[in-house]
Amino acid sequence: MTGKELDYIAQSVASGHISGNGPFTKKCQVYLEKKFGAKKVLLTTSCTAALEIAAVLCNVGPGDEIIMPSFTFVSTANAFLLRGARPVFVDINEDTLNINADLIEDRITEKTKVIAPIHYAGVACDMDKVLEIARRYSLIVIEDAAQAVCAKYKGRYLGTIADLGTYSFHESKNFNCGEGGALVINDERFIKRAETIAEKGTNRGEFRRGEVDKYTWVDIGSSYLPSDILAAYLYAQLEQMERIMTIREAIYCYYSKHLSPLSEKGLLRLPRVPSWSQQNYHMFYVLLPTQELRDKLIGDLKRNGILAVFHYVPLHTSPVGRKLGYSDGDFPVTENLSKRLLRLPLYNDLKEFEQEKVLKVISDVLSKC
Ligand SMILES: *Cc1c(COP(=O)(O)O)cnc(C)c1O
Predict the structure, then answer these.
(1) What b/e sequence results for 36-53 when a residue is b if at least 16 CB atoms lie within 10 Å of its CB, and e otherwise?
(2) Is 48 in the pocket of ligand 1 (CB under 6 A)?
């Protein structure tokens, strides 16, 4: 917590409006719209929910194909699978672990409707290339910017660049309210329908604004609005966005500085950030030379009381991926890097002596190589 969370929650409860679309929800939405230059931001119960709304907005269904990396969280794929559409995976770029934009065009068929890149670790995809391909084939682009809140591509905030963007405010992300998310709408034609879908398929938004005299069922939809109590917590975090970023930057840079000698010796690889990307210090990961070494390091860290985790099991090698017809070997870069990746602890109140402990275990393990 950054300070004002409980105060704002108390205010929310006192206001009497603790369901969705209350005063704190509006504050969060306006804050994000202004700061990021987004046409419309709608708070949701999660990034997963925002992706589900996005999938409905794209009108995809059985027979349609959605291009995305296999190296992502399940929600990117599930949102479309729930509509009956098929995720079509593409390998990642060795440098950023983002979708390899040079491989997208080969995967486009007459069934392709959407490209859904994710900005892994808050480091931007090559958006110019993705958008150029999308324009040529008339495809919708959804940025899964779950990890990329407040990060930029060539000076523009991630999530605001494509037709639609999605953010996560899950507790594991930079700015959080436990569980939460947002849909960023950059193409105006989606705004009204997005509100309807998030309001359980009713035109309650128009009713609230006095545009209609009763509200009714007008579309498909679900319950996607977070309680205003959660928005109150989130608003306290958003107000501290710059401070949180500064803290995370310092932690990131400390790891980076102290691991660079090991990196120069070729014992591990540090994250690479292209010049177009202004990252948000969401994550610090290292790539070890082998999976064996990665797994040994996880064990040694654990024995020292340090939780370090890896992700993702590539979606194409998961049980659902196999059912979709994928198999091992389909995306070699994804498979190789995901086996060697390790995330180091990075949270706002991580102390320098704790980082030193992490660094010591890493150098002890790698010095024996
Ligand atoms: C965290 C994450 C999500 C899911 O976010 P929730 O808010 O937990 O639903 C989706 N996509 C990516 C890339 C993520 O990192």
Answers:
(1) bebebbbbbbbbbbbbbb
(2) yes
CA distance linking residue 326 with residue 318, whole number of Å: 9
Q: How far apart are CA 320 and CA 327, in angstroms?
A: 11
Going 166 to 168 to 174 to 176, the CA torsion angle's sign is positive
Q: Indicate the SS3 state at residue 253.
A: helix
Q: Is ligand 1 within 6 A of the CB of residue 144?
A: yes
Q: Is there an atom of ligand 1 within 6 Å of 358 CB?
A: no
Q: How far apart are CA 124 and CA 145, in angstroms?
A: 9
Separation of CA 232 and ligand 1 centre (Å): 21
Q: How much is the pLDDT for 368?
A: 86
CB 215 within 8 A of CB 27: no
Q: How far is the CA of 75 from the centre of ligand 1 (A)?
A: 7
Asked whether 162 and 143 are in contact (CB, 8 A), the reply is yes
CA-nearest residue, atom 8 of ligand 1: 170
Name every residue whose Cβ is closer than 8 Å to that of residue 177 and which is 6 or more positions away in sequence.
Answer: 169, 226, 230, 231, 233, 234, 237
Let me know: does 316 contact 71? Beta carbons within 8 Å: no
With a 6 Å cutoff on the Cβ, whether 277 touches ligand 1 is no
Predicted local distance difference test score (pLDDT) of residue 2: 92
The distance from CA 84 to its chain's CA centroid, rounded to whole angstroms, is 23
Contact 29, 42 (CB under 8 A): yes
Residue numbers in the chain where pLDDT is lower than 70: none
- How many helices (H) and strands (E) are present in the chain, helices listed first? 13, 12
Residue 8 contacts residue 236 (beta carbons within 8 Å): yes
Q: What is the pTM of this model?
A: 0.97
